[in-house]
Amino acid sequence: MENIGEKSIYSRRKNKEGDKITCDSCIFFHLFNSFKNWSSGNEFIDNLLRRCQLEQLLKPENIVEWVPYENFEDVKYETKGGFGSIYSATWIVGWISGWDNTNKQFIRIGKKKGCIEIIK
Length: 120
Prior knowledge:
Blueprint: E1 3-4, E2 7-8, E3 10-15, E4 18-23, H1 24-34, H2 43-55, E5 72-80, E6 84-91, E7 96-100, E8 105-108, E9 112-119
Antiparallel strand pairs: 1-2, 3-4, 5-6, 6-9, 7-8
């Protein structure tokens, strides 16, 4: 990401819909300003996720984020995993699929079923 004075650098990225322009500095500041809005409850994990978000910002679809338990529904135990228990669940808003330059927010795919591991 480049920032020249007060100008934001936009990068052109190819995705399913074709060429899209994304404001890297918009995404960076959106993530940075959102840090106060979430916590895993573990300072090490929080710092790791924040560092990954800011240092590895390649495209919105690859952003690692903390998803609180209350953002899942239909949570059902499946089996024991390596670090905790594995559950099937539906992620209510789904993962990030892009960036909306007009509204300065992430675009999400909506409800998505998958697996989660609850670490104890």
